[in-house]
Amino acid sequence: MSEEKKNEIAPVDAEYEVVDQVDDQTIVELMTGQTIQDYVYSFKQGGRVVEGLTLAGINEAANRRGGIQVEEKDYEETENSWIATVKAVDTITGSSRYGACEQPKMNGNRPDPFAFVKAIHKAQRNAIKQLIPVPVIREVLNFYLRRKTGGGDPKQQPQPQQSGGNITNAQKAAFAIANKLSEPLEKESISKTDLWNYIKRKYSVESRNDMSEQQWTQLSAELKAAETTPKLLDELCKRIKQLSTANEESEVPTVKETDETETYNETETEQEETTSAKF
Fold this sequence. Notes:
three-stranded antiparallel sheet, 9 strands, disordered C terminus, 48% helix, 20% strand, disordered N terminus
C-alpha cells in the first residue's frame, strides 16, 4: 500500500482543482478577447511535479492532431448549475467520446456570468482530450513547458535508422502502393510529406519505425483501397488535407524525420532488384 502511495503523482482532487481554476481563467480570457496565457499547468504535489495541458493546450493538441470534430452539444439548466454534454469524433479513426461538465452558477458569493460558457467549453475539453494520442499531448506539453521556462523549442531527437532486414512484407507493400499513389496525390497538391504526417498522426507514432506489422497491414489496405476506388481516394485526400490545414494553424512545429528514404531488397521474384520508396 505504501509503495502505491509513493508512486502516485498527485491526488485527483488536487489536480482537478488546479486545472479547473486555470481553465476558468482561460475561458474568461477567450470570451473577453484577452491573450491566452496558459497552455500548460505545472505544480508540485506531495514532492512530485504534476504537469498537463490546460483547455487551451488541449485545443492546440487537437488542432495539431487534426481530424477531431465536435458533433453534438447538449445542455441542461438546474437551479444551481449548468450541465453540458459534448460528443467528439475522430474522423480519421472513427472513434468517438463523450465529455460532460456541471458548472455552478455562482462564483463564490456572486453570480458567474460565464457559467454556461464554462460548462460547454469544459465538456468539450473532456471529450476531445480522450481522442488525442499520448505522443501528441507530450509533444505540445513539452513545447509549451520549454517556452514557459525560457528553454526555447524542444530539441528534435534523431530518428533511428531501420535496416533493410527488418522491413516486413506489409511495410514493403505499403511503400509500393504509396509510390503508385504519388502521382494522383500530387494532382491534389498533396506531397509525400503530407501523406507521411497523416500516417504518423493516424497511428500515433513519431517515426514509421515505431509502427507494428499490424499497422503496416492496415495502412496497406487503406492505400490499396484508395488506389482502386476513386471515391475512397477522394476521402483519403480530404483527410490528409484536413490534417495539413490543422498543422499549418498549429503553433507547435512539426517534427520531421531526418531521412524519409527506405531502401529494401525484393527477393520474391526470380531477379533480385532494389527498390527505393519515400513517403
